[in-house]
Amino acid sequence: MIETIGCLHVHSKISGGTHSIQELAMTARQSGVDFIVLAENWRVEEILHLCGYREHVLVIPGAENEAEGVHFLSVGQNKFACRKDWSVCRCLEETQMAGGKSFLAHPERFNFARARLRMLELARSHPNILGIELWSMMERWMYSWNWLKAFLHMRVDLAGPSPRLLKSWDMHLISGRRLAVIGSVDRYNLLLFNLPLDMFKVKNPLKKIRTHVFVSEITGDAGMDSNAIIRSLCLGNAFIANDEICDSKNTRFLLKKKNAVLSACGEIMNYVSPEEDLSLMMMIPKRAEIRLVKNGEIIDESEDLSKEWYIHEPGVYRAEVRLNSVPWIFTNPFYLIQKSRQEMNWLGEESVLAQTGQMAMSHEES
Length: 366
Ligand SMILES: [Zn+2]
Description:
The structure is a single chain. By secondary structure, the chain is of the alpha+beta class. It is built from ten helices and 21 strands. The strands form three sheets. Strands 1, 2, 3, 4, 12, 13, 14, 15, 16, 17, 18, 19, 20 and 21 form a 14-stranded mixed beta sheet that branches. It has a five-stranded mixed beta sheet with strand order 5-6-7-8-9, with helices on both faces. β7, α4 (113-125) and β8 form a beta-alpha-beta unit. Zinc ion is lined by residues 64, 71, 105-106.
């Protein structure tokens, strides 16, 4: 199991960001980031030749799509398959047919109840929504912005994922929905009285919210590695962290059976009985407050470097970590279920796999 660290939903100059793709790759390398997923509004075809390994960083093409006021990030498609005058469902379907995997983008940015409810409804029921951006840097940065604090400290403390969004994610999980979460950057130029609003500043947006993804191998082939990362993102073999607080590398949330590691988070496992000796284990690189959340409820909380819990009941289990009370790490869950998969509302690995096409990265083909 290899941990690869990425920044998702990254806008380059093409779509309102401040840097070219090459500059982003360079910043990523200097910041210890292994891959970035772009979010170029409407222009996937035009950037494919700029993707692949750049500066030893894997640049994965992606698009931020918008329809009916809903924004979603799609990854892995070869062409842009969405139009503003289409319904969001049609955009999701066409994107999926083009090989794209879709994640709802910053569901909490919308203050309009209608748009938010539409997003939550899609997250609950649309088969082509594989996950949500649980922790969006730009969304939480705008939420945390405060003139007085900004002037006094010349910085803004980034808020953790919205409690309201965490709660609705938990509700979806309890209802039997497999829904992965990702972290996102989404940094673009905001102008206020013609001044860029990030003057205090999100200095290096690639150092904050990152998604740490587990894959079985990294081959050095851009197409193969992109597909492996996208697959793990869809399944939820990943955790999200604010690495500016403390580097979360080497964090592990594992399922064990009689002391042998079965898998990393995101997996669906059949729960048979307490005699199976199943346990969950959380390990973090720095002593902090570890919480175990079962079916949306915190069932254990303590300060530690590692923690193991024996599991006596089925449920959806995830972990959260706070460092000095500041939100730091959020894992995807383990789904320990008793019903057969067919009885559940899950999106199985099969459908995720079936949708994973081979991405063409032009500089490799030539
Ligand atoms: Zn957006």
